[in-house]
């Protein structure tokens, strides 16, 4: 108990009296929560510029151009006489796609022949590609439907019957959850979980590096080279758990309301899942910090891992497509399990029972990383014993 | 320190820096092992290229031959896999909550009968819009499946009403659009994401390690020794320190290009010279920015913090996951302050599209500006800091 208290006080001093650790665990956590969502705040991509090559110059072709321009996903930025000119515009990046209306378009439609338009879309940017594709297909589809319904009506069907005859099987697509299909509400809730983990690992590593620098600089204290490792790890975890309880509350309770993606009724389940997530992350941090010789090392090493980890967490890139061995291996990192589980709780209104499997994985991770953290502490004590204890 | 007996100048600084790098296992990790490991993980994650079949649940309220036809067609679209047949919506929703399926297709009771009577029954599809890529895959696959079934039924009805099959097909869809993909055919996520992620990964290492190269001199109080090796002049001191990093990271960047265009088969239509020069400028820009952060902070720790803040979220701002035009003004400004944004633009314009060179001069000028602007400030600031006897390690 004495060791535990001494370790707690010592670690708290390493955290709260070190501007570097505080920048990571408090300021960065706050700043990132406002900076990271900035690119996505407009939520959806609208009015992607496309060019039109109208070879028909008819009433119907002009109607199609107007419909494309009015579609919310695209706007007709340029009308050019030939495909060569249109392609130059795409190459230069002025437009993302080209819609070609062939000569004889109106005549063929009126004579009942099937008409084929051509769409060319720049696929070098995926989101703009999707917007241009949707815009072209839907505006052509709307015109096509209008033509077909008009034909049915010419045969004496009512408007309603004509609509039914046109589509013998209807399809209604309904979004579950993220109803606006917004990009911020898609990316932000997941990335916030990753920021929690990464800053926590960096903070623990930085404080550990500072402690090790203290030993190599010859100012070893008795908290560095003695005391049962279990009591040491438990005591040293407490400042982080305390701090990250606040950070997690900020990220899971305040930010969803601030960005307007809050789903009521998820609070208790999120809190219960956050416990094993934070425990696993803290003990992982204590395990890793044995490898960080200096105060800055942890940040330098952990920084790059965020990029691969984002795409291994299954939200930006479907987990089904990741090779099976990599999916299993990536479970050593808490976010791989915690992000999908927390998304279901906070965004879909799932209950604790729905994430029971993930909760188990996180508790198992915590159970694995606790003894390894104690081992790291033990090795650190052996190292510290080689240095003389300085007088306080 | 009296250095008159030793050789001083640019070469001495380069040799000194090379020895510092070779001495420490930390440099081996951060300059070689971790960049390769990170890049390899990213390539492996996207290994399969296109998204594979995604699991969905079906609630078949009809249980008729026609509803089973539809289920088979959904299963056959390529994008989707019917992983479970559920008796009711509640059971299907549990699957969504547990995360085992991305969506539910509900076929109403009396589906076949209503189709036969021409009452146009509606199939309802619920898709998890929280997952953007799977959501668009579900929408397009189901639209394809139902329109194909619709067209088949309608043609059958029209032929039964004595229309010629060809005329019937023209009536079903009077206007169609044939879509062609420019520059990235076949539409491939590997091309799209990996080609942007690897440069984003590389810039993290460049900034971190150049901050480290300069910051450790201050932290360990060896900046005086470094300047002494340069004969006390700022230009050879800074140039000699930068050269090993520029050379090493340019080599890594060219390895990255070889992986992208050679191994992964990212389409390349443009000029190798343009992409090569832009790659060199990209590395130079980040080396300069890294030194600038270390010099501005005056110590390793804060410098590393600045580097982290600058490089870690850069991927989100680079306009790949969400286009720059769609960002709020603050996002557009920050995006333009990141060399990686400009570099990725050159890669797309000169690599993928083979655009005329003048399309990219904006981006190239920006890269040159990032690579050149910081040096005068660096010379002044580093010379000042190195005159301090002990390093400001920051306690």
Describe the model.
The complex is a heterodimer of chains A (392) and B (395). Helices cover 64% and strands 8% of the residues of chain A. Chain A has 392 residues and is of the alpha/beta class. In chain A, strand 1 (48-54), helix 3 (59-70) and strand 2 form a beta-alpha-beta unit. In chain A, helix 10 (229-258) packs across helix 11 (267-288). The longest helix of chain B is centred in the middle third of the chain and has 31 residues, at 189-219. Residues 1-5 and 390-395 of chain B have low confidence and may be disordered. By secondary structure, chain B is an alpha/beta fold. Chain B folds into two domains: 10-46 and 186-387, no CATH class; 54-172, abc type-2 transporter like fold. Helices cover 65% and strands 8% of the residues of chain B.
Strand content of chain A: 5-15%
List low-confidence stretches of chain A.
Answer: none
Number of domains of chain A: 2
Low-confidence region ranges of chain B: 1-5, 390-395
Strand order of the largest sheet of chain A: 2-1-3-4
- Proportion of strand residues of chain B: 5-15%
Gyration radius of chain B, rounded: 30 Å
Largest β sheet strand count, sense and barrel closure of chain B: 4 strands, mixed
Global geometry of chain A: elongated
Descriptive key words:
heterodimer, A: 392 residues, alpha/beta, abc type-2 transporter like fold, 2 domains, 4-stranded mixed β-sheet, 16 helices, 64% helix, 8% strand, elongated, B: 395 residues, 5 strands, 65% helix, disordered N terminus
Question: Can you describe this structure in just a few lines?
Answer:
The complex is a heterodimer of chains A (392) and B (395). In chain A, 64% of the residues lie in helices and 8% in strands.
């Amino acid at each position: 108990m004495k060791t535990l208290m001494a370790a707690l006080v010592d670690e708290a001093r390493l955290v709260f009296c070190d501007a570097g650790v505080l920048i990571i665990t408090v300021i960065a956590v706050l700043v990132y929560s406002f900076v990271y969502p900035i690119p996505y705040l407009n939520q959806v991509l609208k009015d992607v510029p496309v060019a039109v090559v109208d070879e028909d110059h008819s009433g119907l072709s002009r109607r199609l151009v107007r419909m494309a321009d009015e579609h919310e996903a695209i706007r007709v930025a340029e009308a050019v006489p030939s495909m060569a000119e249109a392609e130059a515009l795409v190459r230069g990046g002025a437009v993302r796609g080209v819609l070609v209306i062939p000569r004889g378009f109106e005549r063929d439609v009126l004579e009942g022949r099937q008409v084929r338009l051509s769409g060319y879309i720049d696929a070098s940017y995926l989101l703009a590609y999707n917007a241009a594709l949707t815009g072209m297909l839907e505006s052509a589809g709307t015109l096509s439907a209008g033509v077909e319904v008009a034909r049915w009506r010419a045969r004496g069907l009512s408007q309603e019957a004509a609509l039914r005859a046109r589509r013998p099987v209807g399809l209604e697509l309904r979004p579950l959850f993220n109803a606006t299909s917004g990009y911020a509400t898609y990316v932000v809730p997941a990335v916030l979980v990753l920021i929690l983990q990464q800053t926590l690992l960096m903070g623990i590593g930085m404080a550990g590096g500072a402690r090790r620098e203290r030993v190599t600089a010859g100012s070893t204290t008795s908290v560095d080279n003695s005391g049962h490792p279990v009591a040491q790890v438990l005591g040293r975890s407490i400042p982080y758990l305390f701090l990250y309880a606040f950070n997690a509350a900020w990220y899971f309770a305040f930010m969803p309301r601030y960005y307007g993606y809050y789903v009521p009724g998820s609070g208790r389940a999120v809190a219960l899942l956050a416990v094993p997530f934070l425990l696993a992350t803290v003990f992982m941090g204590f395990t890793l910090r044995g490898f960080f010789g200096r105060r800055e090392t942890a940040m330098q090493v952990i920084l790059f891992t965020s990029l691969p980890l984002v795409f291994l967490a299954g939200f930006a890139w479907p987990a089904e497509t990741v090779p099976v061995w990599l999916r299993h291996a990536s479970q050593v990192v808490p976010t791989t399990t915690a992000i999908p589980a927390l998304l279901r709780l906070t965004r879909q209104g799932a209950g604790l029972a729905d994430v029971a499997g993930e909760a188990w994985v996180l508790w198992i991770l915590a159970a694995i990383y606790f003894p390894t953290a104690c081992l790291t502490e033990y090795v650190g004590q052996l190292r510290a014993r080689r240095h003389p204890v300085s007088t306080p | 320190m009296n250095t008159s007996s030793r050789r001083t100048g640019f070469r001495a600084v380069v040799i000194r820096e090379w020895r510092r790098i070779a001495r420490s296992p930390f440099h081996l990790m951060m300059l070689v092992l971790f960049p390769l490991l990170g890049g390899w993980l990213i390539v492996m994650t996207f290994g399969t290229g296109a998204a594979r079949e995604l699991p969905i649940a079906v609630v078949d309220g009809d249980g008729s031959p026609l509803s089973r036809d539809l289920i088979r067609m959904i299963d056959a679209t390529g994008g989707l896999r019917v992983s479970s047949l559920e008796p009711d919506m509640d059971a299907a929703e549990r699957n969504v909550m547990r995360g085992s399926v991305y969506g539910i297709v509900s076929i109403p009771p009396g589906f076949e009968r209503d189709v036969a009577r021409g009452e146009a029954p509606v199939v309802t599809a619920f898709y998890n819009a929280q997952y953007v890529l799977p959501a668009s895959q579900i929408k397009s696959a189901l639209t394809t499946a139902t329109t194909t079934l619709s067209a088949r039924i309608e043609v059958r009805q029209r032929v039964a009403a004595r229309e010629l099959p060809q005329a019937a097909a023209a009536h079903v869809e009077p206007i169609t659009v044939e879509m062609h993909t420019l520059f990235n055919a076949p539409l491939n996520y590997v091309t799209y994401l990996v080609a942007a992620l690897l440069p984003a990964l590389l810039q993290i290492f460049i900034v971190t390690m150049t901050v480290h190269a300069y910051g450790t001199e201050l932290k360990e109080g060896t900046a005086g020794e470094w300047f002494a090796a340069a004969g006390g002049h700022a230009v050879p001191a800074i140039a000699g320190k930068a050269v090993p990093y520029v050379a090493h990271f340019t080599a890594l960047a060219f390895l990255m290009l070889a992986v992208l265009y050679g191994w992964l088969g990212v389409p390349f239509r443009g000029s190798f010279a343009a992409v090569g020069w832009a790659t060199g400028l990209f590395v130079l820009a980040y080396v300069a920015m890294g030194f600038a952060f270390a010099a501005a902070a005056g110590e390793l720790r804060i410098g590393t913090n600045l580097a982290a803040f600058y490089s870690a979220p850069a991927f989100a701002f680079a306009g790949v996951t969400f286009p720059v035009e769609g960002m709020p003004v603050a996002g557009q400004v920050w995006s333009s302050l990141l060399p990686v944004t400009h570099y990725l633009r050159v890669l797309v314009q000169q690599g993928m599209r083979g655009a005329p060179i003048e399309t990219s001069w904006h981006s190239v000028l920006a890269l040159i500006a990032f690579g050149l602007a910081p040096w005068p400030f660096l010379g002044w600031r580093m010379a000042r800091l190195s005159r301090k006897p002990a390093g400001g390690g920051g306690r």
